[in-house]
């Protein structure tokens, strides 16, 4: 069958879907991934077809005002303020993404669409084409539960009523941002008016199946989820089979004890030079060697001592088994890679789902207590690095969980769920 995967966002919003696409391809299906153009070569290198989406949203996040918006989301009032403030700039980009998603569908001629919530037009396109649609998430962000609040809301212990209300609030924010684009597209394509806009439902009110690409061992499935929502296990890409490290990185790894990895993906805040200086000083004072990933976010590095090396992009699946601990921002993908490698973490969350994962891995005793980015100091980072490199309980728990996660077959389970929705001859 032909499968169209629509996703959008940073690398953490793309890499798991590439892994899912590779699994579908291994199962004999033809897969097209449509996402930001900056990831086109990554998708082609994975052996998948690529369909264009613009890079506008990511360029907006790269700009100083975008970085500031991410850095300042410390409470829900700031989230609402920033969301409303960015709507005028995001709106035209979202409208373009709608058109590009439709163009990708016409190019692919899919038998099913698998989509990330940022590709919100997917259910409408599927209705137009008369094919099934399935939402794929790597975070527990949309399906309501009374067991815990939505991850971007204040984690208040007010009980099930608050927890469920938090999902309604987040869904209302999404509706405020994108519903008008979906309504306009439906009207232009002669589809009947939808009962309401809800990413968990088709226009006629029937539920959309949702699969989650993380592990039950990390976050168990809530008892009150509907049958249409499931957890498959992590989706890991085969991105390291042909990887060959630079001579400098190979020599560094062989020259001494296992280092600590430090990387924040696209997150560096508004002062990346200050962040780099904190990290370098903390690694030296903790008495450990370090691998510092400059990343998409452009961490600014002037000079490094011989005990620390800077790298650009190295596959986590290759590098993390070769380090003794991981300091990161708590993005879903990096968190998954550290867990699967069996390495203890220090999470320095910036925004979004990152505080959620930071608290979660700490509660599993596989990480130090998270340090919010705005409270990051050299002293706090030194203490956390020492904890994950000397506390044997954390080290052992991380290794044990990693061994179990490496036995999971998350991609295969997700592929089976997708196949079950399509009646093939």
Question: Could you characterize what this model shows?
Answer:
- By secondary structure, the chain is of the alpha/beta class.
- It folds into two domains: 2-234 and 408-419, Rossmann fold, CATH 3.40.50; 247-405, Rossmann fold (3-Layer(aba) Sandwich), CATH 3.40.50.
- It is built from 15 helices and twelve strands.
- The strands form two sheets. Strands 3-2-1-4-5-6-7 form a seven-stranded parallel sheet, sandwiched between helices. A five-stranded parallel sheet has the order 10-9-8-11-12, sandwiched between helices.
- Helix 1 packs across helix 15, helix 5 crosses helix 7 and helix 11 crosses helix 14 (392-405).
- This is UDP-glucose--sterol glucosyltransferase.
- Residues 300-403 form the Erythromycin biosynthesis protein CIII-like C-terminal domain.
- Keywords: Transferase.
- Pfam families: EryCIII-like_C, Glyco_transf_28.
Q: How many strand segments?
A: 12
CATH superfamily of the largest domain: Glycogen Phosphorylase B
Q: What's the number of structural domains?
A: 2
* CATH domain class of the largest domain: Alpha Beta
Q: Which CATH-level-2 architecture of the largest domain?
A: 3-Layer(aba) Sandwich
Overall spatial form: globular
What distance lies between the first and last C-alpha atoms, to the nearest angstrom? 10 Å
What is the CATH topology classification name of the largest domain?
Rossmann fold
In what range is the share of β-strand residues? 5-15%
- Strand order in the largest sheet: 3-2-1-4-5-6-7
Largest sheet: 7 strands, parallel
Count of discrete alpha- or pi-helical segments spanning 4 or more residues: 15
The amount of helix comes to: 40-55%
